[in-house]
Amino acid sequence: MQTRQTRLSLVSHAATAAMRSGRFPADDPLDARGHTDAHAYRAQLEAPGDALVFSSPARCARETATALNLTADIAPALADMHYGRWHGQRVADIATDELPMLSAWSTDPTAAPPGGESFAAVSTRVAQWLDQLADVPAVIAITHAVVIRAALLHALRAPLATYTRIEIAPLSRIELQRSTRGWVWWPAA
């Protein structure tokens, strides 16, 4: 059976107040500015009418999809990293109280926050989702920067340790295309 070409647009959710205040996510909603930015971004996002649309289960991703006028199915594999004990905490406070652990987590893809998930674990679930994605022409996924990093590294078959060299801003988009040679990074239009 021949694989059809699939174009996947991965969009990072709009910014939240937690992001602006330097806190680890805690299923935060979009704030007024995030909603405004997402509504403005709608004109830039080309959404083919036959595209499958998925969202992370997180509130900020679901609200971003709604602001983009997209009806999305929830995909648990697109969930943000589980931050364990750091959930909702300010990064500055963690740096004061647990600097060695924060340093390890921010440089080692196998290190996890206490009770949380490592980047390597996120990468495994994202790779499985990508590899099991239906053969359809177009897919849009509203998700988190860490998930987009994992997807990009999977497509490039790059070492996980390079995740710290990829910055994904709110409402940024990357495109991947799958064909008979696998997933490849494709410049977003």
Overview of this protein structure:
With 189 residues, the chain is an alpha/beta fold. The protein has one domain (6-186): 3-Layer(aba) Sandwich (Rossmann fold), CATH 3.40.50. The protein is 34% helix and 16% strand. The chain has helices at residues 17-20, 32-41, 59-67, 91-97, 99-107, 119-132, 145-156, and strands at 6-12, 52-55, 73-74, 138-143, 173-179, 182-186. The chain has a 6-stranded mixed sheet with strand order 3-2-4-1-5-6. The longest helix is centred in the middle third of the chain and has 14 residues, at 119-132. 37% of the residues are buried.
CATH superfamily: Phosphoglycerate mutase-like
- Percent in strands: 15-25%
Quickly name the level 1 CATH class.
Answer: Alpha Beta
- Which H/E pattern describes the elements? EHHEHEHHHEHEE
Give a nutshell description of this structure:
This protein has helices at 17-20, 32-41, 59-67, 91-97, 99-107, 119-132, 145-156; strands at 6-12, 52-55, 73-74, 138-143, 173-179, 182-186.
Write the layout of secondary structure elements.
Layout: E1 6-12, H1 17-20, H2 32-41, E2 52-55, H3 59-67, E3 73-74, H4 91-97, H5 99-107, H6 119-132, E4 138-143, H7 145-156, E5 173-179, E6 182-186
Parallel strand pairs: 1-4, 2-3, 2-4
Antiparallel strand pairs: 1-5, 5-6
Helix pairs in contact: 2-3, 4-5, 6-7
Organism: Paraburkholderia acidicola
Protein name: Histidine phosphatase family protein
